[in-house]
Amino acid sequence: MFPYLLLPVLFLCPASCTTTRRHAEPLHQDLVTQLPGQPSVGFRHYASYTTVDEKNGRALFYWFFEATSGSDEKPLVLWLNGGPGCSSVGYGATQEIGPFLVDGEGYALKFNPYSWNKEANLLFLESPVGVGFSYSNTSSDYDILGDSFAANDAYSFLHEWYKKFPSYRNRLLHCWRELCRKICTRVGRADL
Ligand SMILES: *[C@@H]1O[C@H](CO)[C@@H](O)[C@H](O)[C@H]1NC(C)=O
């Protein structure tokens, strides 16, 4: 395992950490229950890896924020930072439009009053592999990265993600990207 694969483990506290909490329904396996320095909020957020290619061992990392209110009614926004090669967690989620911005000192998170999750459910995807926490266990994958490759992985990601969040399957999907139009085109054509 590459050393950087350990980072998300430190960064996220999986649902299993909170043995003292009692819920009527089982907690979603990807629910983030606590982040260091996170302000308390009334919406849920989720993060994890989704495998997009089992043979080569490719997995994309996502961070998903429900809307602050009425999440059942609001659309789903898939956010991809551009570059290409910019992290959607490092930029979009924590410096631009996400609900938790890293504070000036870098020690804690502060609530972003202009977060887009006031209007939509926000899904940040780290794409393609090699960006942010997303990775491949097959080194040669990194030699063939390109728009089509990234678009196909994003498509596979969304297909798998809907299995984890089936209630979003029929939700209006807005795909926002800084540059990589091909990815949104591929996802938009998806028969998921
Ligand atoms: C990549 O390899 C690590 C270490 O063997 C393994 O734990 C992980 O599940 C693999 N990832 C995928 C997507 O298969």
Automatic annotation (TrEMBL):
Species of provenance: Iris pallida (Sweet iris)
Entry-linked Pfam families: Peptidase_S10
Entry-linked PANTHER family: SERINE CARBOXYPEPTIDASE-LIKE 32, SERINE PROTEASE FAMILY S10 SERINE CARBOXYPEPTIDASE
Alphabetic keyword roster: Carboxypeptidase, Hydrolase, Protease, Signal
Signal peptide: 1-17
Protein name in UniProt: Serine carboxypeptidase-like 31
GO cellular component annotations of the record: vacuole
GO biological process annotation, one example: proteolysis
Family membership: Belongs to the peptidase S10 family.
Lineage: Eukaryota, Viridiplantae, Streptophyta, Embryophyta, Tracheophyta
SUPFAM superfamilies: alpha/beta-Hydrolases (SSF53474)
GO molecular function: serine-type carboxypeptidase activity
